[in-house]
Structure formats: structure tokens, C-alpha cells
Amino acid sequence: MLRVALDVAHLRLGEAGVARTTRGLAEALEAGADVDLVRLGAGRGTARGSMARRTLVLAIDGVWYPVGTRRAARRSGADVHHCPAPRAPLRRGRPPLVLTVHDLAALRHPETLSGWNRRYTTRFLPSMARAADRVTVPSADTGRDVHALLDVPEARIRVVPNGVDRRFFDPAPRGPARAPYVLFVGTPEPRKNLPRLAEAVAALRRAGRPERLLVAGSDGWGGPFAGAGPHVEQLGRVSDADLHALYAGAACLAIPSLHEGFGLPAVEAMAAGCPVVAARAGALPEVCGDAAVLVDPLDVGSIAAGLERAVEDRARLVPLGRARARELTWEAAAARLVEVYRELA
Fold first, then answer.
1. List of domains in the chain
2. What is the pTM of this model?
3. Which of 189, 230, 312, 335 could form an S-S bond across to 220 if both were Cys, CB 3.0 to 4.6 Å?
4. pLDDT at 221 (0 to 100)
């Protein structure tokens, strides 16, 4: 059986975004019969903003990834070493390395990332990509960026779309009764374009529409976005059950990001029967296809018009979205990854 050492140290630093995809992938790989999965770097997390957190970040970024993770992979007897976050060894070695690059926002839109992530990624990600025997990406859009911006040969790039947890296809648990709302799900940070989304919802309310904006997500480095207004409710981090209920009860999901390498909330919302409004940017058009309303993320008027269209066109968008989401499962992602692993083992 193929033994794969999967690095999970980044799960100690957060629960959203890349961490969410790593958990889905790991569970699918462990459920299959083709892989003996060994998790590397697991441990307790720390509170954001604490001195313990800063110390942990320095230890993980400064010691674990340059040296520790590959040593642990060798000691485990792994055939393949997979780092599913943008942190990895800086030099080639054994066992062969698979690196997942989710997006290149740090290079495309550096002003939208926190200082540490921006500096670390721009300084070290090119070396990580050169050290990897294969680079997997969740979309062809990100693959083109990896080739163009990191100079990775196309022959070493593999597209492995992310999946959606099957629970989102099930009937949603009952949530609290709420007035009509537009939902945003994600880590609040500048590239998510929340101020323009809030302006768009405010414009629709002035025109007589009832929807408010609910923001589900926390741990954004920019903190609560300024000037949100009374029509915006920030829920912070929510459980998966509450998230499912929020998707199912929303008038629509809005993901107007300036850049996404995939856009997992869009697919989760589609699975849950929620219409989606997505930016015409990055990988979102590729991932959503014709199952979402696409808008110009830099134009508040375009976002507002897209929100209104999605609400009014719900009956057409929901079945299209469910069909698209069924094409993107963690089981399918795991199967594609096993093929990549076998290329190197």
C-alpha cells in the first residue's frame, strides 16, 4: 500500500480556508483503500494575537517546514511527502514532495495580505515550488499563475479541484429564524472585498429590498471591516451545522473576492441549495461555471445588480448549482491525488 506523509502542522494555526480543505482531503484519503496516510506536525493550537501564537508561527515557519517536516516524512517510511498548504521544504530531497498551491494572491494582490504572510510567501514560495516534484493546484487558473509567476514547468503541475463535504447536500439543520439575508462566508480580509459588498447591500436596501448582510468567519488579519453599517451582522466563526443552516436559509451567497484560487464557500452553498453571486475574477468563473451570477468585483453597482438577479432567479440557479457541486467531491479529489502520488512513488 502507498504510504503518504501528509503535513498538517498548519491546522494548528487556523480552522478556515486552507485548513478546511486539508481536513476534507485527509478524511477522504483515510477512507480510501489505496493509501496509508501518516499525519505530520499535528498538535495543539494557540490563541490568535498571543505571544504563544507568535512563537508557534516562528517555530513552524522557521524550523518545521525548512527542516522538520521532511525528516519526519523520511522517518515515517513514506513513499510520498505532501504539503497541502503554502509551506514546505526549500530544497529537493527524499521522499518526493507534492506541494499544493491554492492561489497566488500574495503575488497578484500583495496589498491585500498581512505583512508576515506577504513577506514569507514572496520570499520563500518560489523556492518551495522549485523543491517540489509535483505542484497541485485547485484550478486551471491557479495553474497558469504557478507556471507564469513561479516559473514551474507545466509538466510538473497537476490540477486537483477541491471537494465539498457531502453533508451540505443533506437537509439542513434548523437554524434560528432570521430576516432575509445575503450571506458571506470566509476569513474577513481585504481581498474578500467586503466593503464593496456591504455598499451593494446598502444600495439595495435603499431601493426597498429587505436583505441584510450576514458575515460568517473570523481570524481575519484586518479585523472587522470599517463602516459596515447597521445592515451588516458579523457572526464570527460558526460550526459546520450552523454554516449549513446559514447556507440553506440565505437569499444568496456572495463571494465578490478580488482573487480566489478556488472559492470553496461557493461550492458548499450550491450543494446546500443556495444561489451564488461570484466575482468575475480569479478561478471563480471556472469553478462556478453557469451555475452562478458573475459580477465585476470592483463595481458596487454590478455587485448589487448580481445580488438582485440571484434572488429573483433562484428557481433556475439552485438546480444548476447542485449539479455543479456534485461534480466536486473530496472522494474525486483524493482519487486524483493518488494518481499524482503514484507518479512519484
1. 2-163+329-344 (3.40.50.2000), 166-326 (3.40.50.2000)
2. 0.91
3. 189
4. 53
